[in-house]
Design a protein that fits this description.
There is one protein chain. By secondary structure, this protein is mainly alpha-helical. It contains 11 helices and no strands. α5 (about 65-80) packs antiparallel against α6 (about 90-120), α6 crosses α7 and α8 (about 145-155) crosses α9. The longest helix is centred in the C-terminal third of the chain and has 40 residues, at about 170-210.
């Protein structure tokens, strides 16, 4: 499967939770048909629903994929280095986006093989393809979600204990996954911040002992932090660890 095909399937995959929420409402919109009794969508209504879903696509990417954890960790890394806008936001977003595609590749392949390809071949209808396509994404989110977070939102929604993971509604899976990703991202960010904080403390102590209180410690510590990060091959270590954290 080519890269363009993977990107297309990834885009449609990340919009699946939004389609799930809009499906019940969209089915109520019917066009007037002349001789047939079966309701059908008019072209204008289909375009309206599709454009509405596309406007919500960034929210789906943020809330149902690995993107959230990756971009938060990269932002904390830049803050710890003290490099202001270096790397720029466009670079961080590009790295986070393509690393997200790398992490989500098994999910995309499962959706392609189990839902998209059978639907394109005409062996299953749209509803069956939708039900089959959402399952790999749900499994991915549940594997990264803490049980305590699922119980929190289940209690708020008034659900009792679930017999299995398949019984958890998607409306509970998504917010539980988001909260778990935020917790994990900040835990990783805390560990990243510690060595750079130590360098700042050492530089500040040295400058104070030398009486250079007017000299900014950040100006002196920045080259040392960059040198440390480069010497330990920080980018490869960080991105590799981030990708591996989704497979453990």
């Amino acid at each position: 499967m080519s890269l363009v095909t993977r990107l297309f399937i990834a885009t449609m995959l990340l919009a699946v939770p939004l389609l799930a929420g809009a499906q019940s409402e969209a089915l109520q919109l019917e066009a007037v048909t002349g001789a047939t009794e079966q309701p059908s969508f008019s072209l204008s209504i289909q375009i309206l629903v599709m454009m509405t879903l596309l406007t919500l696509l960034p929210a789906a990417i943020l809330s149902t994929s690995a993107f959230m954890r990756i971009i938060i960790v990269l932002s904390i890394l830049r803050q710890a280095l003290g490099t202001a806008q270096t790397p720029p936001n466009q670079v961080l977003l590009g790295v986070a986006l393509f690393l997200t595609f790398f992490v989500m590749t098994p999910v995309i392949d499962n959706v392609w093989a189990g839902a998209v390809q059978p639907y394109m071949e005409g062996t299953v209808d749209a509803k069956a393809a939708f039900d089959a396509g959402i399952q790999p994404l749900r499994e991915f989110m549940l594997n990264q979600t803490r049980d305590s977070d699922v119980q929190l939102f289940a209690g708020i929604a008034g659900y009792e204990n679930f017999q299995s993971a398949g019984d958890v509604p998607t409306s509970i899976v998504i917010p539980s996954f988001m909260v778990s990703e935020l917790k994990t991202a900040f835990q990783i960010g805390f560990l990243i911040f510690i060595p750079f904080l130590v360098i700042d403390l050492v530089v500040s102590s040295v400058l104070m002992s030398m009486g250079m209180m007017m000299l900014s410690p950040m100006l002196i510590s920045l080259p040392f932090k960059i040198m440390l990060f480069v010497l330990v091959d920080g980018w490869a270590m960080l991105l590799g660890s981030l990708a591996a954290s989704f497979y453990t």
